[in-house]
Amino acid sequence: MAVWIQAQQLQGDALHQMQSLYGQHFPIEVRHYLSQWIEGQLWDAIDLENPQEEFKAKRLLDSLIQELQKKAEHQVGEDGFLLKIKLGHYASQLKSTYDRCPLELVRCIKHILYTEQRLVREANNSSSPLGGMIDSMSQKYQQINQAFEELRILTQDTENDLRKLQHNQEYFIIQYQESLRIQAQLSSLATLPPADRQLREPSLLSKRATVEAWLTREANTLQKYRLGLAEKHQKTLALLRKQQTVILDDELIQWKRRQQLAGNGGPPEGGLDILQSWCEKLAETIWQNRQQIRRAEHLRQQLPIPGPIEELLNDLNSTITDIISALVTSTFIIEKQPPQVLKTQTKFAATVRLLVGGKLNVHMNPPQVKATIISEQQAKALLKNENTRNDSSGEILNNNCVMEYHQTTGTLSAHFRNMSLKRIKRSDRRGAESVTEEKFTILFESQFSVGGNELVFQVKTLSLPVVVIVHGSQDNNATATVLWDNAFAEPGRVPFIVPDKVLWPQLCDALNMKYRAEVQSNRGLSEENLVFLAQKAFSSSSCNPEDYRSMTMTWSQFNRESLPGRNFTFWQWFDGVMELTKKHLKPHWNDGAILGFVNKQQAQDMLMSKPNGTFLLRFSDSEIGGITIAWVAENPNKTGERMVWNLMPYTTKDFSIRSLADRISDLNHLLFLYPDRPKDEVFSKYYTPPLSKAVDGYVKPQIKQVVPEFATPNPDPAANPTYMDHAASPAVSHPSNYGIYPAM
């Protein structure tokens, strides 16, 4: 029988648990109307820990949206009209939520199906799993859910023991009162005549002895019950600590690491819904056990029995308070980081969230969050719990925000929409450090109470490091600082220490991640591209990738020291390439039309073996953000001699006048894109369409690029009367300055 059919038959707490799985992140209506399709997909075939599986997840997301749209289209009638609108809205919502992180959709649906199957299995009181999905679920997630199940059973067990203890203690108190009544009767015998006293005293003494023996025996039993309950609580708290460590120190830290790498262009960190559901389960279990320990303490005070229980309960109370304190302070997180390159007098946003806020009813008295910018030194002092005297390193406008509870999603968050850094106070810089290497952080802090002011928490969280700039010209150097920090920061570091040098392959991973994100391309940097970058970085001529595997690059080599013979650093050159490609060359890069990372000598070697008119596109060595065309042709000064020519590099300024495709179209001597593709086959789809005929007697001119030495007359001058030929801004490079190579 389908899981969904059985899930709809759940009752009571199980039904409530099942309903709580759904929300804005995955509406229950989608589960209902696509139940057969959802249960028929191979969700467990996707490895959530493997980013390469993202394309499979994307295919499932697209199919899910298509199924929803199909379902919407088939709705008819008055009720069908409303459902059609609703399902169409859900299709758009799911696409918007998971388009950039389809693996999170798979994670979400796996969690839903696993939980539904568990709830159905428990309701049927059956130990056999429904289908084979549970067996193939992620082992880690299974362990987390199994631990929660164990905690639920332990907590229920101690609850039952506590009730039994309370019942026995109440009966003990009744019997104790009975012993006091017997004692009072014995005392009153003194006022009776001796004959009456002798008649009644033996019976009362016997009854007193029986009750006192029972009380002594029962007091020992109660003490054993109390100790047994305390030991069970110790076991529960040990498991709670372990589970909390897995969720906070493993899963949440991994999410934060993914968030940090997303700042470098890595895949999105994914939603927090599953993490929040785990944290809420932790909060609920911790709170239940805390209440049990308090009730046990109340029973002890009500009936003190000498023994070690008082100290045990104090320890348990202290431990459970530590656990809940760690949970609350660790789950106050930054869901949306502020920009890491922060320009003064510019609006920016950030969102903070408390993952356990809804479960602990923090929203009943909405807390206020304050944002402050602090320096690296102040951040260090803060983490050492040193008194920072509310120091800040600048002034942020609109830096207070009240946390809001969103009923539909069950989230408690504060969204700072209009912050602006009014001024910044810089510290004394060390050695060669520039202003774009100085790191700050945004400190978010708040205070709230739990359990009706029973516990009050001061919570603080630091943003990822930010670099403050005052002018756009500082952006690329600031980005280098952020890139290095995001890529190479180690978990639990002292703010904001990073290694001064890293292995070249590590840097390659960071550069490739950044390049793909900036250019928004699936075509990253190839091994040949990375060898070219290594040659540039290390002034090396080796073409063997293995030669660079164990080499290290320092921060100074990356973005402090200029490249040999240049007035710019390695990063500045690479950043210029990314900017140019992102703004003007993206389609050509994606098509594979740009080799790009090729030096002049390599271009010469590649082209000289090809027919005349063969050309390639490579990034300029001598200019930041430049690309040049190299082609092979006859030497006009020497008959029969061939040579490689290089145009002066094009920059963003040139492409704002005329596109690369149009410039290539203009140059009739360029025939084949290396190795042998006809240029029109590659670039024609990007050519600007011809201008329309003259209007009102006016002919509109169009700029056309020419290279004088290779200009050929138009075969049909009347064919394009609207063109005006202009001397092109890039001219043929002069041999002595721009390296026109002689024939080989």
UniProtKB/TrEMBL annotation:
One Pfam family this sequence matches: STAT_int
Record flagged with keyword NADP: no
CDD domains linked: STAT5_CCD (cd16855), STAT5_DBD (cd16849)
Name this polypeptide is given: Signal transducer and activator of transcription
GO CC terms of this entry: cytosol; nucleus
Keywords for this protein: Activator, Coiled coil, Cytoplasm, DNA-binding, Nucleus, Phosphoprotein, SH2 domain, Transcription, Transcription regulation
Coiled-coil intervals: 134-168
Presence of the UniProt keyword Phosphoprotein in the record: yes
Localization in the cell: Cytoplasm; Nucleus
Family label: Belongs to the transcription factor STAT family.
Entries under InterPro entries matching the protein: p53-like_TF_DNA-bd_sf, SH2, SH2_dom_sf, STAT, STAT5_CC, STAT5a/5b_DBD, STAT_linker, STAT_N_sf
Domain spans labelled SH2: 589-690
Record Gene3D superfamilies: EF-hand, SH2 domain, STAT transcription factor, all-alpha domain, STAT transcription factor, DNA-binding domain, STAT transcription factor, N-terminal domain
A Gene Ontology molecular function term of the record: DNA binding
BP-aspect Gene Ontology terms: anatomical structure morphogenesis; cell surface receptor signaling pathway; epithelium development
Higher taxonomy: Eukaryota, Metazoa, Chordata, Craniata, Vertebrata
UniProt main location, coarse: cytoplasm
